[in-house]
Amino acid sequence: MKQIARGIRKRCPHCGGSDLFTRWWTMRRNCPTCGLKFDRDAGYGTGAMIVNTAATIGTFLVVFVGIMVATWPDVPWTAALVITIVVNTIVPIVFYPWSKTIFLGLDLAVRPLSAEESAAADVWLRQNATTAGAASATD
Ligand SMILES: [Zn+2]
């Protein structure tokens, strides 16, 4: 569970380290604190996409049902449509970094770090010990 909580805080789910993103859309390849490689398998971004879609659908449902409950029986359907389109456009953009860290936290909670991954993280950390931030930022 602590891995998921760290992901929700946009921290490294493995060590709790920060500074995982160089830009809003750009996640470092490795954690600058523990060296964990964030893309644990090929196609790893699909899991984050599922988390982001679930968050968007959840927010949409809360907003849509909230509008219906608050205004029933005279629901302003056009306004509800415009508001939910805006919500469905903004939430995936704003939530993007958290979708990556939360999925990584979920994955680490279910499938802990292997000995090989841990060794690779140690090697990466030794090679980038003094320039971890600068090396990752240029990847
Ligand atoms: Zn870390």
How would you explain this protein's 3D organization?
The chain is mostly helical. It has one domain (2-127). Helix content is 63%, strand content 0%. The chain is built from five helices and no strands. Residues 134-139 have low confidence and may be disordered. The site of zinc ion (ZN) has 8 residues, from loops.
Estimated share of beta-strand residues: under 5%
From the helix content, strand content and strand pairing, which structural class follows? mainly alpha
Rounded mean pLDDT score: 93
Order of helices and strands: HHHHH
**Could you list the spans in which at least 5 consecutive residues all have pLDDT below 50?**
134-139
Q: Count of helices?
A: 5
Distinct small molecules bound, one entry per kind = zinc ion
Give the arrangement of secondary structure elements.
Layout: H1 2-8, H2 45-71, H3 77-110, H4 115-127, H5 132-137
Zinc ion (ZN) is lined by residues 12, 14-15, 17, 31, 33-34, 36.
Quick structural overview:
63% of the residues lie in helices and 0% in strands.
